[in-house]
Amino acid sequence: MQKAILLSDSELSLRLQKVTAAMQSAALEAILLSDNASKYYITGRVFAGYVYITASGQLTCFIQRPVELDGPRVIYIRKPEDVPSHVAAPKSLGFEVNTTCWATVERLHALFPDTPVGNASAVMMHARSTKTPAELSLIRESGIRQEAVYRRIPSLYREGMTDLEFQIEIERASRLEGCLGQFRISGDSMELFMGSIIAGDNADAPSPYDFAMGGAGLHPSLPVGADGSIIKPGMTVMVDVNGNYTGYMTDMTRVFALGQISDHALKAHECSIRIHRALTRAGALGTPASRLYEIAVEIATEAGLERYFMGHRQHAKFIGHGLGIEINELPVIAPRSRDVITPGQVIALEPKFVIPGVGAVGIENTYYITPEGHWECLTNAPEEIIRL
Question: By the 8 A CB rule, do 266 and 385 touch?
């Protein structure tokens, strides 16, 4: 028999404290979790079933599959309708309405039809927005392994390669380094396979997603990333690939170039690095995330690069995001964000530019906000444009 809950008692207690505090703020007496990211967060594994948590910190795993998981908080069920026989009807109950289909929410609500319902997705997003030391350790490991892959990238290039061929070699190196391949994304439908390699003017192809540069992709069914372009002199190649090595991911973008690129593109790349330095200095504890966005726009505008900032034909309306189990966690560094900089957050900053005729430039780094408010970089590959 295997333990259903892989977290240590002390780690589980830390995470439950954060979840129950968020539940109490949301006036929820209990939550019923169905999303894989939430189940992984609270148990250390993914299974078919549900996690039931009360505001007092009582946790029960209702498991359908796999068989032979065990533990003091485990109850095997055949279907969700078995749950009410094991718990009393709460005064209020939260479901993960951001990630669970409406039919499932209706079915779960029917378990306790007279109970008012709320949004457990907001509870979990808030709880997961700051990381425990154990979570940070897993993110650090992902950063180290992702950095090792990025340092190998120049040696993977061969003359005459397409962006797709280059991406395949980078993906191979990533998987051999231990990348899990899964790119967890929360919320509205946004699909991506192992990351994005974008060469030249493909960076200017508008995306259906809120990306600074999406790329046209290889097929309308997955319109993002490499489109088969041959990598040519004077062209940049932006590499933003999967950093999930531990179930917790880092996010890093670096730019490579074949031959000489324009001074305009070099200036924009240097501006991106300057924005990183400015935001990590300005992002003291309690700083509104919206203010960091404003500072980034001010720097790009002062440099005369606002037309190319976070896209050219189509612009993204953010310059950073939290991450961990999923790539798009809180906080969001955007103009209307209500988030503030808080100790324990892990944030990816990605101020990028698209220069027509050259491609995308700019870097992305993942940072940990220390208890003192220092922004510690967890993705330390070289930041300058690297020649292929």
Answer: yes
Axis crossing angle, helix 9-25 with helix 120-128, rounded to the nearest 10: 130
Residues 349, 374: contact at Cβ < 8 Å? Answer: no
Name 261's Cβ contacts closer than 8 Å, sequence gap at least 6: 234, 235, 236, 358, 385
| Cβ atoms of 25 and 53 closer than 8 Å | no
Rounded CA gap, 232 and 236, in Å?
Answer: 9
Rounded-to-integer distance, Cα 258 and Cα 55, Å: 57
Contact 343, 370 (CB under 8 A): yes
Among residues 225, 274, 234, 277, the alpha carbon closest in space to that of 256 is found at 234
Alpha carbon distances (Å) from 180 to 244, 279, 337, 343: 6, 31, 31, 28
Say what the pLDDT of residue 98 is.
92
Give me the amino acid identity at 80.
P
H helices of the chain, in order, are 9-25, 36-43, 102-109, 120-128, 133-156, 163-177, 263-282, 289-302
Question: Quick one: pLDDT at residue 52?
Answer: 98
E-only strand ranges, 55-107: 59-65, 69-70, 74-76, 93-95
Identify the segments of the chain with pLDDT beneath 70: none
Residue 340: partners with Cβ closer than 8 Å, 6 or more residues away: 286, 287, 288, 289, 331
pLDDT in tens, 120-131: 999 999 999 999
Query: How far is residue 257's CA from residue 115's CA, in Å, rounded to a whole number?
Result: 59
